Amino acid sequence: MRRILSTLACCLLPLIASAEGDAKYNASLPFRPSNITGLSDIYLWVGSYYNATTKIEFTPEIGSTINESVCENLQGQTFTAEYESFLAITERGPYNLGSNPVNTLLTLWHSDANLTSLSGLPWSSSSLEWYLESAPTVSSINKDIFNLTMSPDTKGPPYKLTGAIKDADLMVTGFDMDLKPCNTSTEISRNQMTLVDRDWSNNAGWNWTYPMVDVQFDSRTANFTLNGYAAGFPYPINPRGSMGRDEVQGKIKVSFFGVIDSYHSDTLVNSSSTPTWLRTVGFGNNSANIGYGNGSLGSPRPLHWGAVAVCSVVSLAFMYF
Ligand SMILES: *[C@@H]1O[C@H](CO)[C@@H](O)[C@H](O)[C@H]1NC(C)=O
Ligand SMILES: *[C@@H]1O[C@H](CO)[C@@H](O)[C@H](O)[C@H]1NC(C)=O
Ligand SMILES: *[C@@H]1O[C@H](CO)[C@@H](O)[C@H](O)[C@H]1NC(C)=O
Ligand SMILES: *[C@@H]1O[C@H](CO)[C@@H](O)[C@H](O)[C@H]1NC(C)=O
Ligand SMILES: *[C@@H]1O[C@H](CO)[C@@H](O)[C@H](O)[C@H]1NC(C)=O
Ligand SMILES: *[C@@H]1O[C@H](CO)[C@@H](O)[C@H](O)[C@H]1NC(C)=O
Ligand SMILES: *[C@@H]1O[C@H](CO)[C@@H](O)[C@H](O)[C@H]1NC(C)=O
Ligand SMILES: *[C@@H]1O[C@H](CO)[C@@H](O)[C@H](O)[C@H]1NC(C)=O
Ligand SMILES: *[C@@H]1O[C@H](CO)[C@@H](O)[C@H](O)[C@H]1NC(C)=O
Ligand SMILES: *[C@@H]1O[C@H](CO)[C@@H](O)[C@H](O)[C@H]1NC(C)=O
Ligand SMILES: *[C@@H]1O[C@H](CO)[C@@H](O)[C@H](O)[C@H]1NC(C)=O
Ligand SMILES: *[C@@H]1O[C@H](CO)[C@@H](O)[C@H](O)[C@H]1NC(C)=O
Fold first, then answer.
1. How far apart are CA 203 and CA 195, in angstroms?
2. Where is the signal peptide (predicted)?
């Protein structure tokens, strides 16, 4: 009986809480209210979300140092890869210490990913191939990863932003690409690719440049391109072996030409010199959005920490009465 009561309380409490909306909602933070049913955490932020297939092109130039030429199998070729992806362009928050007018987050996904059923943040998903964020958008690490500068004299959308990725140490995260094995007896064609964004022994003397990011967006489309250099490390045939030694370095281009995902996007103001959104997702005032016209829009998402905490306390109370 007590078990039933506590279970009931757990089911009811969030509903009671939701009648008042999201009590923790703070309109001066760039987060959406948490009372939106079925909205996965990858849509946590106020802003616009765009979908596209990201295309990556890699052209080898040198081997593991300037003094090593590209192996024969890779010479004179450009390799491509494509990933399902989305680009979030979101409101800046108090954690942004720099002057970036917005935060950008590009995520690349495996084909099996179902973005509407993911729980948790994008980087906690095993279906995520790679992400590139302009700032750490949740944590309190208050340092932007790269600067984005808006073109001068902007009066409204489309907004045009550019930035260089310098010494951001993005080499710690990478994405896979199929090249060709340099040595077929030790390596497979799959390589782990990382952006070159700082000086290190393997790029000494090589004429590489920092990755340059260009973003254009308005209420309908968003384009994101990155031009720079990357290093590829072949995976060994024996999965337990160390990464192959035939490192290859060359030019990389990442291109995303996206279309607005209105269902998950707030309304971009079309007459503002800085990107600004009218909040609509979660407020039932945009018929294109998730949850519009749903009387029970207020029921909580599964991961509602406030409700979880209240639930545990109430369950404990019932257990001891
Ligand atoms: C969800 O929470 C927000 C913020 O508290 C509130 O304005 C909105 O009305 C809530 N939605 C519903 C349907 O309760
Ligand atoms: C809302 O967020 C702002 C900015 O971080 C903060 O200054 C303010 O205290 C918050 N308000 C509440 C009620 O927590
Ligand atoms: C490349 O070779 C030149 C000439 O032998 C040498 O000075 C330089 O240090 C070498 N660079 C690297 C990165 O090995
Ligand atoms: C993705 O997940 C949602 C929610 O669980 C489900 O309704 C939908 O059918 C799934 N889509 C695919 C293609 O599996
Ligand atoms: C970003 O801009 C700030 C202020 O101009 C500067 O101090 C910082 O070094 C820049 N960061 C990068 C990664 O370029
Ligand atoms: C391939 O790797 C094997 C094992 O390290 C080595 O014996 C062989 O010489 C390599 N072949 C070439 C073409 O580099
Ligand atoms: C290095 O690359 C830049 C930009 O592509 C080019 O302008 C310059 O001439 C190159 N320098 C050398 C020494 O190749
Ligand atoms: C993005 O690129 C497409 C294709 O070139 C173009 O039609 C669209 O206007 C661009 N979007 C923006 C916001 O510049
Ligand atoms: C964009 O992708 C998301 C996640 O897969 C999906 O829910 C949404 O319907 C897509 N929207 C468009 C316009 O393709
Ligand atoms: C700007 O938005 C307003 C209100 O949504 C709309 O009436 C107007 O047509 C829009 N203008 C342009 C140029 O898109
Ligand atoms: C929708 O409602 C929210 C909360 O009241 C408000 O901030 C926002 O401006 C409204 N959006 C539109 C398009 O009216
Ligand atoms: C409204 O939300 C409830 C609760 O999650 C859901 O079961 C129902 O399908 C939604 N209805 C519409 C029309 O979206």
1. 12
2. 1-19
